[in-house]
Amino acid sequence: VQLQASGGGLVQAGGSLRLSCVASGRTSSNYAMGWFRQAPGKERDFVAAISWSPGTTTYADSAKGRFTISRDNAKNTVYLQMNSLKPEDTALYYCAAGGYRRIETAYTYWGQGTQVTVSS
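RESULT FIELD:
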């Protein structure tokens, strides 16, 4: 499975971005999808995950109420809608496919990352 993330960019605090992650290859497998992020000098952290079906979701506390993860299985795409962005959301955002968990080791496949920068 190959994952291609996109949608990152530079946005002012309070703004919004929608990240997308398209899966290709062995997409017939019913993977859960997750988003993680890594800020400079910090470890990669869990952001949100969504199961294959029925699309159960879970979020990091930092994302609750501001971010929404969704997926379109017909398009092999997962989205992360990010609203009310804060400078501390600045990071390289990765999508991943694997188990429905909050830990990196549950995910088998990783995208290349898309940069999100939030200015104050």
